């Protein structure tokens, strides 16, 4: 299988050419930021129209829902559902249903207290109800390896901190500044 060759790049031969290329690059970066800003503004407008439309529809739906709920509780259930919890009416299902099961603590009991209580029990099944979550704190390890030789030796052969030099171009462009500049 042959390797795909990368297209040859133009390399400036003087400082003036490098400055011209950098100006073009900065312009392209600005255009990319402006495309994002424009898209964000358009999406914000669409979201606002959607939010407004949904608020209008909710304002109309709530009193209808409340009225139907009151009718159901006042005897509509007996008329259309009989002993069942729900019924079909006008192409929709209406009735009472159980909410999803939720776990709540008893009064004056905290989840931590229940956890501690379970940990202290001598019960085979307690492991089913406790979840140990152990994970590496990578930021702490990086900081310790870089600042403490004894920690670096302890992790030697297992973990290492790697940093590589990377070429960069900082155009100094900032999305927030561009938004302010282009706000009409």
Which structural class is indicated by helix and strand composition?
mainly alpha
Low-pLDDT sequence parts: none
Average of the residue pLDDT scores: 92
The Rg value, from CA coordinates, equals 32 Å
Count of distinct strands: 2
Strand coverage percent:
under 5%
Q: Any overview of this molecule?
A:
Helices cover about 55% and strands about 5% of the residues. The chain is mainly alpha-helical and about 180 residues long. About 0% of the residues are buried.
Q: What are the SSEs and their pairings?
A:
Elements: H1 15-80, E1 86-89, E2 92-95, H2 111-120, H3 126-129, H4 138-147, H5 149-155, H6 175-182
Antiparallel strand pairs: 1-2
Helix pairs in contact: 4-5
Could you write a compact summary of the structure shown?
This protein has six helices and two strands; from the N terminus they run H-E-E-H-H-H-H-H. It has 184 residues and is mainly alpha-helical.
Labels describing this entry:
184 residues, mainly alpha, two-stranded antiparallel ribbon, 6 helices
């Amino acid at each position: 299988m042959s390797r795909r060759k990368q297209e040859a790049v133009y390399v400036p031969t003087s400082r003036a050419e490098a400055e011209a290329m950098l100006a073009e690059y900065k312009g392209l970066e600005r255009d990319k930021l402006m495309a994002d800003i424009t898209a964000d503004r358009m999406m914000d407008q669409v979201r606002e129209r959607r939010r407004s439309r949904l608020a209008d529809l909710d304002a109309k739906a709530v009193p209808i829902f409340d009225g139907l709920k009151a009718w159901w509780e006042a005897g509509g259930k007996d008329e259309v559902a009989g002993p069942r919890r729900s019924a079909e009416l006008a192409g929709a299902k209406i009735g009472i249903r159980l909410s999803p099961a939720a776990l709540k603590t008893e009064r004056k009991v905290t989840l931590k207290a229940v956890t501690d209580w379970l940990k202290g029990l001598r019960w085979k099944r307690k492991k089913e109800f406790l979840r140990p979550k152990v994970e590496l704190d990578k930021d702490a390890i990086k900081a310790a390896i870089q600042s403490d030789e004894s920690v670096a030796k302890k992790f030697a052969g297992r973990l290492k901190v790697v940093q590589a030099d990377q070429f960069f171009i900082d155009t100094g462009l900032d999305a927030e500044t561009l938004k302010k500049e282009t706000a009409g």
